[in-house]
Amino acid sequence: MEKEKNLTGSQRVENKLDSFIGKNRKILLIVGIVVLVAVIAVCVAVGVVQSNTEKKFNALAELEGQYETIASLDNTSAEYSDSVAAFTTAADSLISSASLNSYPGAKAALLKADLAFAEGDYQTAADGYIAVSEAQSKTYLAPLCIMNAAACYENLGDNDTAIGLYNQVIDTYGDSNAFAPKAMFAIGRIYDAMGDTELARAEFETLTGLYLVPENGGSPSEYARMAEAYLINYAE
pLDDT value at position 15? Predict the structure, then answer.
């Protein structure tokens, strides 16, 4: 007891800790092993996720290379057909493994839709674009794909659906998004081609009002300039 009294506070704590460890050595060893196993499992899981993500982005890079090669080939050649078949297989595999909710999967589907558009299969392209826009509604891919889908329906001669999609870009993402001027101009252009001058004029006036003299010293939109040319023609 006298010895205990002469110990400092830190020494007494150290003695109690040594006593606790001695009495509970087995339990502490088991807990330590469990914690170590858990840490290793987490590290392995993180490593697997990172590895899988890297593989998907590498697969996307290869797919983009395949697409660029296809674009440079004669579409009547056997090499073109073989390249398209290989590209389609690789794209489907990446879409299946990554899903449209991930960037690699969505970009693979976008490239596949781009190829369908280039080959004149506008309905297949439109369906692909819409699927990507729905899965990627919070990213820049959504308005881009909606614009592309609208162009598909223009080529299909379905002007009502095309106008609806162009309006969707404006209504959903606002008139300040990068695609809004192009969407407005496309709507006015379609109305003009249909002979509906009043609706075309209204769309072009809205476009020039918003983007011909932008605030903060920005450059006027090229689509606003083109809309202005239409309005000048209407006045003549």
Answer: 62
